[in-house]
Amino acid sequence: MSMSLGEQLKRRKPIVFRQHHHEGEELARNLTTFQLMMFGVGATVGTGIFFVLSESVPEAGPAVIISFLIAGLAAGLSALCYAELASAIPVSGSTYSYAYHAMGELVAVIIAGCVLLEYGVATAAVAVGWSGYFNELLDSTIGVQIPQALSTSFIAGPGEDPTGGLLNLPAVVLVFMCMFLLLRGATESAKINSIMVVIKLGVLLLFVVIGLTAWNGSHFDNFFGAGIAGVTAAAGTIFFSFIGLDAVATAGEEVKDPQRSLPRAIIGALIIVTTVYVLVALAGIAAKEAGWFETEEAQSAGLSQILNDITGTTIWGTVLAAGAVISIFSVTLVTLYGQTRILFAIGRDGLISRKFTKVDAKTMAPNFNTIVVAIVVALIAGFVPSDYLWDTVSIGTLVAFSVVALGVLVLRRTHADLERPFRIPGYPVTPLLTIAACVWILIGLPMTTWVIFLAWLAIVMAFYLAYGRRNATLNTYVDPEEIAEPRGKEDQ
Amino acid sequence: MTILLAFSPHQDDTGAVELACQLARSNNDSVHAVTVVPQAWPTAVAGDTDRDFKLWAQEEGEWSASAARDVLAEHPDIVSEASWCAGRSVPQALLDRAAELDAGLIVVGSGDEGPHGKVFLTSKTDRLLHSSGVPVAIAPQGYWSGPTGRVTRATLGFRGDDATWSLLDRAAEICRRVDASMRLVTYAVRGRTMRPNTVSGAEEMVHQQWIRQATAELKEAVEHLHSLGFTDDQVSSEVAVGTSWGRAMDRLEWHRGDVLVVGSSSTSSLLQRVFLGSSAAKIVRNSPVPVLVVP
Lower CB density within 10 Å: C or N end of chain B? Predict the structure, then answer.
């Protein structure tokens, strides 16, 4: 290997586009701003709001509402930065691919580690949350509950008593169900996505309406009791529930006038999502005092419990649980899918085994990849309690988003003349503000989370030095076609 | 070898006859047309009330056989025969008759319901495909090969797994015998993207990789055919790309004398029966040329 490690860590993947093999295949796609906005709402709502209150209210108290606003602001700014990077480097993949092109191999590897948390751990976290609602639904409809031993991990959360559990079986089963769907080539269509949006928003509004009827102003006393540290810590946890807003940026190529539509769609989606979240938090705190969210009862299917307690019947709690079970299922499917495709992109670059890019002849999908991802995610979902998961996802995503904002700054300097269908408004303040917001929330995250995160990055780097460094496609490619990216979107 | 032609006298479409003669001409085979008529009850019926029915069935059978002879007479170069048999189920009766005649191939038409020029699987054909131990050829609706038509090229769906490798050898053997060239095609049908697509261009990425993989596999298969004695003129390969099976098929060029060969589903190979896999079924339905389904 003639290249020094330093050079290799800094080298960027050249932007080469593949020549078209099949002209006339593109489907003209003209999403309207409104459609794009609803797309963002659909991708975002539901990742965390069904479970995040029981994690964040104990941290911030009633001021969790402010935490929601902070997290929303950071997510919105990040999405704008994301949109510029995605439009300047229209390659397939995610933050990882943009980083490889804009900032070199080292940053790409770090981002790869972050993105694995953003998707892989997020899938596990969502599956664990689903398990709680599923159990609640079983209990309130047929009066059966999956025993504690099979619905809770044996690992206790920080500072908690032993759980009496063994593994979270429903979460594991959910992950494998999604895996089978993906192996069979299942996809979630735009139509199903719309139905899911309606279900999610419907049950959340139901919660808000009923929750507000039980308004108790005294629950808001001592609003800032947890202090600013509590508020930022909660914002860190909550950040997770805004993941998905960046999906708007990836769909940027599908709108006619990205410069105008993208910011409107991102900001519109952000306003809708934040409003829904704040209303849910408001209704939750109005109905239950902050201390309740720490109890065992609040930990699984918390929103359903609140409705049951307010109305005195299980009807509305059941409706909410049913809505959650259906919509979280689809969220799990989409995140699991996202994870497999990111590993696909990394495998294509040779930084992990190329087996991850092997496409099955029958299903024309990466089956090996899907199975490996599902097994790892199922293990995490089955054995790690949600307390450790949310913050880990948030830290990965926040770091990734900070790097995206940094990427915008770097690329404007290194590739000033690159065509950018979307340029971020308020440059350079907006990306700087994004970095500031992300870093501020990052600082507020607990030490354990940082330890887990840094340990994970160390593993990723070690793997890179042992494997990726030697096997990177950039080491050996002779024909630019080998690293060429498919041009534009040709999706169906 | 005898080719069993499933003959249906009440249909205008003579595609199956044309195909049977074309295949017979290519391989010096004979054609045996069989019409299945309804069978009376096997047990005696009080008062012999179904006598008229039996007589009608017999007359119908004889009439059909003579109609088949008339149609086959248009291909005087082919040695042909026609007969009829009675059966409760047309596909089962055809299979039994094929076993009696030791037929190596069954030829059926697309019925009158399907679109003109395309292969249509009737319920009877479907059942036949599920249980036949010998290859089944299906003619597109309105197929015409001409008085001297022969099979000149076989297009084989190739995807590089064990099942298609073994199919490749069998198809190559047939092609050598009938002096036809081979075209290997891998289909690259792009999957639908997940909505919301959190990873941009995700399916395009997978799709391109599949094309790359398929091209490499095809190259290997072509080399294999060369080693079996096929010359460059006799072998070609292509990746058919499209957003649906129909579009991918439409992108291929088709000539008179083309036949499409598909294998049975690998999942049922244990049963040694012709059974179309989901991809094969889609390929067959979109085929503009006759299809040969090999178990």
Answer: N
Closest by CA to B203, choosing from A185, A115, A15, is A185
- The helix/strand/coil state of B118 is coil
Q: What predicted TM-score, i.e. pTM, was given to this entire model?
A: 0.87
Domain membership flag for residue A460:
yes
- Listed in order, strand segments (DSSP E) in A206-256 are none
Please count the residues of chain B.
295
For chain A, what percentages of helix, strand and coil (3-state, to nearest 5) are there? 70, 0, 25
Task: Assess if residue A482 is contained within a domain.
Answer: no
Dihedral sign, CA of A67, A68, A73, A74? positive
Question: What structural domains does chain B harbor?
Answer: 2-138 (3.40.50.620), 153-294 (3.40.50.620)
Distance CA B156, CA B237 (A): 9
B288 in contact with A, Cβ within 8 Å: no
Number of domains in chain A: 1
Query: Does residue A67 register a pLDDT over 60?
Result: yes
Residue A116: which H helix or E strand, with range? helix A105-116
Report whether pLDDT(B272) > 70. Answer: no
Q: For residue A169, give the CATH number of its domain.
A: 1.20.1740.10
Q: Give the other-Cβ count within 10 Å of A448's Cβ.
A: 13
Whether A7 maps to a domain, the answer reads: no
A410's CB contacts (< 8 A; 6+ apart) are: A102, A103
161-200 of B, contacting A, C-beta below 8 A: 161, 164, 188-200
B231 phi, psi to nearest 5 deg: -90, 170
